[in-house]
Design a protein that fits this description.
It contains 13 helices and 5 strands. With 359 residues, it is an alpha+beta fold. Helix 2 (33-44) crosses helix 3.
């Protein structure tokens, strides 16, 4: 298996997507879809006013500054603007539906009064002319026809409003998905991970059979320094795909930052969780990371992993910290291995960040 990795050796101009991603990384900008949109418009020059405003930003712009530009130039498809616009649409549609239902109720009540009055009138008459009967039938027939037509109109309009609300709901769900997705690897991001790991401690069963696996690509900085960030990005994408294809579909896989990935496992014991981690590790180790066109091999690529059971931690933050300590133990022991937190001697609680961050 030889995944195609970006060509680093050929001296060709990088595509705009690569240029944007590199620039955002250098400026410390989070890879959110809305940020890509701003950088694309600014760097292609397709929006002169936005470009002029963009160059006034500092070398490391804040998310607040970027959101201000986004909300100004992409009001209909950007950040808070999407939520506010959708909320207004939903409010208007619901008010129209409520008004429609109120009118329909009023019409039915009126029809009911007509029937009641007619019935009362018939009960008080022992005899009536054909002409009077025809008038009564005419009134009831007209009221019935009107009520049926009104009911059909209400049903049709409700169908239209329901479709419009479903469309708004779909757009909101899509925005939510994008906000929780890592734009490079298309798996869950740190934002989504933080919400998911917190769910483990919602009930005792999740705590008893929940676990966290943390993984880190070994010596990734050397890969970036030697082959360049485009190659590094491609490797991150391939590793993410290996994670997704190796574990069960019900497992939560996320890129939690840089070259670090996480898997949240439910319903498994420690040994089984460690086996899952090792299966992923082996899959990465056995993958050939090479450029098919040039024959350049960017490997070997390996990952170090740490495993911690939710029952061994006091909460989400503690679970992450202990899985991270197990991951660090794998690094210290020579990399390309899986370490259980429970197997770490108690005296090995400190982290030598200087050593750890050289990877």
């Amino acid at each position: 298996m030889q995944p195609a990795v970006a060509q680093n050796e050929q001296r060709v101009a990088p595509d705009i997507a690569t240029t944007i991603a590199t620039t955002m990384r250098q400026m410390g900008v989070v890879g959110l879809p809305r940020n890509y949109e701003i950088f694309y418009e600014a760097m292609t020059g397709s929006n002169p006013e936005l470009s002029l405003e963009f160059v006034t930003l500092s070398k490391r712009p804040t998310q607040i500054e970027l959101d201000r530009i986004g909300q100004k130039y992409f009001a209909q498809s950007h950040g808070q603007g999407i939520v506010e616009n959708a909320r207004d649409v939903i409010a208007r549609e619901l008010e129209e539906v409520a008004k429609l239902l109120r009118n329909g109720q009023s019409h039915i009540q009126k029809y009911g009064r007509i029937l009641h009055e007619t019935s009362s009138g018939l009960e008080n008459r022992t005899a009536m002319s054909r002409e009077l009967l025809q008038k009564i039938v005419g009134v009831v027939s007209t009221a019935t026809t009107s009520t049926i037509e009104r009911g059909q109109e209400v049903a049709a309009t409700l169908g239209e409003k329901t479709a419009e609300l479903e469309n708004v709901k779909s757009k909101l769900e899509e925005y939510k998905r994008l906000a929780d997705t890592d734009p490079l690897t298309h798996i869950w991001n740190r934002r989504a991970f933080d919400k998911e790991i917190a769910k483990i401690y919602d009930d005792k069963k999740s705590i008893a059979f929940g676990a966290l696996i943390l993984a880190d690509i070994d010596a990734f900085k050397e890969i970036n320094d030697r082959f360049g960030h485009p190659v590094g990005d491609k490797i991150l994408q391939i590793v993410a795909n290996i994670f997704k294809s190796t574990v069960r579909d019900d497992m939560f896989v996320a890129r939690t930052g840089g070259e670090e990935f996480a898997i949240i496992v439910a319903g498994s014991g420690e040994d089984t969780t460690a086996q899952i981690a090792d299966r992923v590790r082996v899959a990465v180790e056995q993958t050939v990371f090479a450029n098919k066109q040039t024959g350049v091999n960017y490997g070997p690529i390996t990952i170090s992993m740490g495993v911690c059971m939710a029952a061994d931690a006091e909460g989400p933050d503690d679970l992450y910290a202990k899985a991270d300590r197990a991951l660090y133990a794998s690094k210290v022991a020579g990399r390309n291995r899986v370490t259980k937190f429970s197997a770490i001697p108690e005296h090995r609680t400190g982290k030598n960040w200087l050593i750890y961050k050289t990877d």
